[in-house]
Amino acid sequence: MRDLPAGVERREIDGQERLATQGEPVYGEPTDGEWRAWDPTRSKLGAMFDLEMDVGLEGGETVLYLGAASGTTVSHVADFAGPTYAVEFAARPARDLLSVAEPRSRLFPLLKDARKPATYAHVVESDVDAIVQDVATRGQARVALENRQFLADDGRLLLAVKARSEDVTRDPGDVFDDVRAELEDGYEILETRRLDEYHVDHLGIVARPR
Ligand code: SAM
């Protein structure tokens, strides 16, 4: 079984072995003491961990998270990572994200558009160790390329691609081929894996900057 980052464990919670991190509960997830289950059906990054993709994280990394929504996944990330910058452009989920950040001193919510990195470049430190992206809108490869500037040379892009957000009418496999090809402009792709077991028509991608 692949090693998990420090601060992420597989633990028996509610009679079932589950991924878990330590922190304040956020979405009604089962808990055991300070440990909270990380539900891979509600989190693409959780699915990438559960499917044992080699995400290259050891714990304590600086993370730029694009598409934080209400904070379901980024709350787990901030539980085991270092400074975690969470970008979300929709005001409604961003309000929930603020509450999620309150007990997490390492989580910094940013009400910003991930297609306009210049608007948060003065806040996010350069050379982050990982970009986690789950924006689920058209142009997912472009967003990853535009934010590559923040990533350390040996950093990792952990990208969830939703085929239907690019084009509902196309075969997801064809959409994924196009996204992979576009990403190659700025990234070397290390691993890809369909996440269908947990998220239909989604692809998980691990890449590093070229
Ligand atoms: N990552 C979240 C999680 O696992 O908890 C779920 C993210 S949801 C699938 C996609 C989110 O990306 C939405 O909240 C949407 O508002 C946000 N989003 C889409 N395009 C964006 C952009 N250009 N900038 C910032 N946020 C964006």
UniProtKB/TrEMBL annotation:
Q: Which residues bind S-adenosyl-L-methionine?
A: T72, T73, E88, F89, D113, A114, D134, V135, A136, T137
Q: Does the keyword Heme apply?
A: no
- EC number, UniProt record: 2.1.1.-
Q: What's a single GO BP term from this record? A: rRNA processing
Keyword rRNA processing on entry: yes
What does the record give under GO molecular function?
methyltransferase activity; RNA binding
Arranged from A to Z, the UniProt key words for this protein are:
Methyltransferase, RNA-binding, rRNA processing, Transferase, tRNA processing
Sequence similarity: Belongs to the methyltransferase superfamily. Fibrillarin family.
How does this chain assemble?
Answer: Interacts with nop5. Component of box C/D small ribonucleoprotein (sRNP) particles that contain rpl7ae, FlpA and nop5, plus a guide RNA.
Described function: Involved in pre-rRNA and tRNA processing. Utilizes the methyl donor S-adenosyl-L-methionine to catalyze the site-specific 2'-hydroxyl methylation of ribose moieties in rRNA and tRNA. Site specificity is provided by a guide RNA that base pairs with the substrate. Methylation occurs at a characteristic distance from the sequence involved in base pairing with the guide RNA.
HAMAP family, A to Z? RNA_methyltransf_FlpA (MF_00351)
Q: What is this protein called?
A: Fibrillarin-like rRNA/tRNA 2'-O-methyltransferase
Q: What species does this protein belong to?
A: Natribaculum luteum
